[in-house]
């Protein structure tokens, strides 16, 4: 009986790290999916409303908002991608004409966007995605869980 109990404890001890990794992977995948949903929402709104939308980087995350608010429109984000203070969300614009550019990613009314690379580094891991200017679909360049 003691031998069976010892084997059970050993198997359980080996299984716990893999279960922790699975939950970290799930949370990291959820962050990537949430950001991709924000990107697709920006593209869809820019086309349906026939005006440019921006994803703007803030201290608490990334906000989706129109490039220019209408007179009767409340000046608040349409959607938000939040992250905790220990996480970093970085925007790289490889086609930018200046080295120093504002942390804003634009989606034009025709449905295209500026080519961008977005990097996320959080408690559960990191991902890096390259977004197509024509489709705004992500090509995952890096995905690592902790």
Architecture overview:
With 146 residues, the protein is an alpha+beta fold. Helix content is 32%, strand content 32%. It has one helix at residues 2-48, and strands at 53-57, 61-66, 79-82, 88-92, 104-107, 116-122, 125-131, 138-145. The longest helix is centred in the N-terminal third of the chain and has 47 residues, at 2-48. The radius of gyration is 20 Å and the shape is elongated. The two termini are 37 Å apart.
Give a concise summary.
The protein is an alpha+beta fold. The chain has one helix and eight strands. It has a four-stranded antiparallel β-sheet, with helices on one face. It has a four-stranded antiparallel β-sheet with strand order 4-6-7-8, with helices on one face.
Strand content: 25-35%
Q: Helix/strand-derived class? A: alpha+beta
Radius of gyration, CA atoms, in whole angstroms = 20 Å
Low-confidence stretches: none
The pLDDT mean sits at 89
Q: Can you give the helix content as a percent range?
A: 25-40%
Identify the strand order in the major beta sheet: 3-2-1-5
Sketch the major β-sheet: 4 strands, antiparallel
